Amino acid sequence: MDIAIVGAGISGSNVLKSLITHPNFQADDLIDVYEPRQSLGSGLPYEPTDDESIMLNTSSDVLSVDENNELDFTEWLESHFKEPTNFEQLVSRPHYGKYLVERFSPFYTHEQVHHVQNTVVDVEVLDAATKEPADDTQDGNFVYRIKTEDGWQDSVYDAVFFSVGHPEYNDFYDLKGTENYIHNPYPMKEKLANFDNNQKISVVGSGATGVDLMRFFMSNYELEQPLTFYDLKEPFYCVAIPYEKDDFTYHLTKNWVEEQKEVHGGFIPLQVILDTIKDDLKQENAKLW
Ligand SMILES: Cc1cc2nc3c(=O)[nH]c(=O)nc-3n(C[C@H](O)[C@H](O)[C@H](O)COP(=O)(O)OP(=O)(O)OC[C@H]3O[C@@H](n4cnc5c(N)ncnc54)[C@H](O)[C@@H]3O)c2cc1C
Question: Is residue 163 within 6 Å of ligand 1 at its C-beta?
Fold first, then answer.
């Protein structure tokens, strides 16, 4: 099979790892990974070369990518850094990025994997038999063609996985293109490198990115003017992320996966997974689009 993965953050990397380690992966299968970044495995939030002052909001104990060792990241940190945490007992996000790049590198350097360093801008669905564009109502087998910023690619894929991550910030106040307005501050080391200490800086919003900005400016500048945050609601509000919630309807546990694998002879049909997620969300009165 010829497969494309779009995006090489944690999601894309886990798709890649799952495909390569799958018992059905064949010696003639080929995987193209489309990713404009040079670093493969880290994604936008954990860019390994970004400023070390931007911190994880999660404990290292829950961030292992090794399913056989849940403390893999914590142990990696301890073996790579004398002081793995900062004064707040938090771990730097670029450190996590370095860990991800290292752990996923055997998959990206696999001989059946090829990195296309470009952004995907379109995908066309083709009829597998004729290789002509398929129409919406058609049943049958489909294949996919990808367009990057360089144009349509020659390869035709049997499957395309999208793992493109966090959507871009909304431009609520139509500020894009305005002088001295920075729409996306990441990577901070690059985008926020050229301020003067006597400049007056304001930040719209004080969520997680606002906290990153505060840490960055406190670590890299000695601002003479206050750094001002504009917020509509509670300042520095942090979304609570409970790891477990007893009364939350959530069927996709490890036990459920094992049970379903037995029921379906090794593989759980995608439709069963989708229906289960939809039923859980419905149960919780979540709106589905
Ligand atoms: C600033 C920030 C900080 C965060 N901090 C934390 C944290 O501390 N703890 C935590 O648990 N979670 C955090 N998160 C949540 C984070 O989104 C997830 O933990 C996880 O990294 C998402 O991985 P992903 O692979 O889905 O997306 P991403 O890591 O965003 O990867 C998507 C990849 O797709 C690529 N891509 C996008 N569009 C295209 C395209 N058209 N063509 C080709 N490639 C494309 C991008 O370049 C990127 O490398 C943070 C998120 C952000 C945005």
Answer: yes
Cβ 94 under 6 angstroms from ligand 1: no
Ligand 1 and 148: CB distance under 6 A: no
What residue type is assigned to position 131 of the chain?
Answer: K
Domain-by-domain residue ranges, the chain?
Answer: 2-162, 167-241, 254-283
Please name the residue that has the structure tokens 């966090």: 166
- Quote the ligand 1 centre to 107 CA distance (angstroms): 19
The rounded distance, in Å, linking the Cα atoms of 85 and 91 is 5
Give the CA radius of gyration of the chain.
22
The protein residue with its alpha carbon nearest to ligand 1, atom 41, reads: 120
The closest residue, in CA terms, to atom 22 on ligand 1 is: 165
- The DSSP 8-state label assigned to residue 22 in this structure reads S
pTM of structure? 0.87
The finding on whether 166 has its CB within 6 A of some atom of ligand 1 is yes
Q: Ligand 1 atom 50: the closest Cα is on which residue? A: 45
Is the minimum distance from the CB of 58 to ligand 1 under 6 angstroms? yes
Give, for all 289 residues of the chain, the pLDDT tens digit.
999 999 999 999 999 999 999 999 999 999 999 999 999 999 989 999 999 999 998 899 999 999 899 999 999 999 999 999 998 899 999 999 999 999 999 999 999 999 999 999 999 999 998 889 888 676 778 999 999 999 999 999 999 999 999 888 889 899 999 999 999 999 999 999 999 999 999 999 898 899 999 999 999 999 999 999 999 888 887 766 665 556 778 888 889 999 999 999 888 998 999 999 999 988 888 777 6
Q: How many of the other CB atoms lie within 10 Å of CB of 114? A: 13
Class of domain 2-162: alpha beta
Phi-psi category of 20—alpha, beta or left, where left has phi over 0 and alpha has psi -120 to 50?
alpha
